[in-house]
Amino acid sequence: MGNRKVKNVLVTGGAGFIGSHTCVALAEAGYQPVVVDNFANSQSDVPDRIAQIIGTAIPVHQVDCTDETGMRNILDRYEDWHGVIHFAAYKAVGESVAHPLKYYRNNIGSLLTLLQLMNDYPLHHLVFSSSCTVYGEPDHLPVTEKSPVRPAESPYGYTKQVGEQIITDQQQVSPAMRSVLLRYFNPIGAHPSGKIGELPLGKPENLVPYVVQTAAGWRDQLTIFGRDYPTEDGTAIRDYIHVMDLAEAHVKALDWLHQQEAQETPGIFNIGTGRGHSVKEVVDTFEDATGIKVPHQFGSRRPGDVSSIYADATLAQRELNWSASRTLGEALHDAWMWQQTLKPPA
Ligand SMILES: NC(=O)c1ccc[n+]([C@@H]2O[C@H](COP(=O)([O-])OP(=O)(O)OC[C@H]3O[C@@H](n4cnc5c(N)ncnc54)[C@H](O)[C@@H]3O)[C@@H](O)[C@H]2O)c1
Predict the structure, then answer these.
(1) What residues contact residue 147 under an 8 Å CB cut-off, 6+ apart?
(2) Which residues contact 284 (CB under 8 A, 6 or more apart)?
(3) pLDDT score of 156 more than 50
(4) Between 20 and 30 A from 317 (CA), which of 100, 157, 310, 340?
(5) What are the DSSP E strand ranges found in 202-250?
(6) Is 248 close to ligand 1, i.e. is its CB under 6 Å away?
(7) Which CATH superfamily includes the segment(s) 8-188+242-274?
(8) Whose CA is nearest to atom 29 of ligand 1?
């Protein structure tokens, strides 16, 4: 072992869907993930499952990120901080419309607390979970990081835009701070071991959890919202990215931050595959990959859904030396492996 310095990376929301996979990617790259999660949207056995994959336990602190004292206690416990990846947030668009204050309090509150602590502690490198929702319905495809940010369609979307702005403002006055805003496209799939994946809570708002639950017989049929979009088969197009590819992008982003000598504004990167797939293509690919039919019907468009969006991810490739390597079929296969480990809701 020698005197090799441990590179502690604070992972807020590290027990969640993307956070848990990122802990695996961090550990595989030689970092020590230190999880803080209040388990508001994740299960208590996730850290054990991560440990089963990486072969060793990781430190986990059950603390709410808006609790400044609780967060200080965690920061005090470790000597060196290599950086923080901030996932902790609520993410259900529909719920955010019904409960805006809950979203503003949690998503903005946790970010403000974290930035305050970054100001007070030698914790200088931040990777922030943003979203392609900031682009709204884009005029040109694929979307680049220079595409305009459009007015948010929901309080959730607004928390991402405001979060980006708050980080940008704080960056201006913090010479030691390095930050990156990762604009995720549509994360799907699960770890290929089937030990971690996306936690299903109630009726999924996202396509792939709905597809796998329908295939498993939890749902009678899938409704495809809209078949009159201006796309080849009339269904909406998205850029689906395997969650392990997304997880690895965080490690690359952290490495990139440590190469930056100075930074006045945050680095902004689209994290997608650069390819769009229609909803119908996802269903067909799932059926081909698994041999299981997904009963489906067509419904009307959902308010707030854009027609087509996919990333130009060349900046991430050039700067971060990252690109997605897993296929849609692999992601759907892995999502199905994960689904099969789950118990049907009571
Ligand atoms: N999943 C997506 O499609 C998607 C797309 C774009 C951006 N994002 C963003 O990525 C991040 C992670 O998303 P996810 O899909 O992994 O969500 P998730 O709900 O699975 O994970 C979030 C985790 O944060 C925890 N958490 C929430 N509020 C907290 C708080 N105040 N203190 C401590 N822990 C808290 C939850 O318990 C959960 O474990 C979020 O910021 C989300 O907005 C997700």
Answers:
(1) 135, 138, 139, 140
(2) none
(3) yes
(4) 157
(5) 222-225, 237-238, 240-242
(6) no
(7) NAD(P)-binding Rossmann-like Domain (3.40.50.720)
(8) 88
